[in-house]
Amino acid sequence: MMTKKEQRLRRSRQTRARIAIQRVARLTVFRSNLHIYAQVVSEDGGKVLAAASTAEKEVREQLGNGGNVAAAALIGKRIAEKAKAAGVEKVAFDRSGFAYHGRVKALAEAAREAGLQF
């Protein structure tokens, strides 16, 4: 039997394969119990163009808790701003096998509102 993590990674592999064909930068999301992380990775998957997380010092000062929907929305906004500064407008959303719900959904919607297209 697969562990929960193995199941998530198996789900994420399919997404990565599909995004690789699209030849577009991808916005990857990772969530742990305490934090949420977002990265914009280049088309070839070789370079991180922008990154934001609740583990960053200035974000931690704003938030008490990095593991909630409000924190995820803030990171969505930050990653969109950083991506646009790096010249990335269009991305593919890679939820890394996590359900599109709660914190992952909050991050995605905040990034869309801040002007990232996906």
From TrEMBL:
Pfam families: Ribosomal_L18p (PF00861)
Keyword Ribosomal protein attached: yes
Reported function: This is one of the proteins that bind and probably mediate the attachment of the 5S RNA into the large ribosomal subunit, where it forms part of the central protuberance.
Keywords, in A-Z order: Ribonucleoprotein, Ribosomal protein, RNA-binding, rRNA-binding
Protein name: Large ribosomal subunit protein uL18
Family assignment from sequence similarity: Belongs to the universal ribosomal protein uL18 family.
Gene encoding the protein: rplR
Species for this entry: Pelomonas caseinilytica
Domain of life: Bacteria
PANTHER family according to UniProt: 39S RIBOSOMAL PROTEIN L18, MITOCHONDRIAL, LARGE RIBOSOMAL SUBUNIT PROTEIN UL18M
InterPro entries the UniProt entry points to: Ribosomal_L18, Ribosomal_uL18_bac-type, Ribosomal_uL18_bac/plant/anim
Keyword DNA damage: no
Coiled-coil spans in chain: none
GO cellular component: ribosome
Subunit structure: Part of the 50S ribosomal subunit; part of the 5S rRNA/L5/L18/L25 subcomplex. Contacts the 5S and 23S rRNAs.
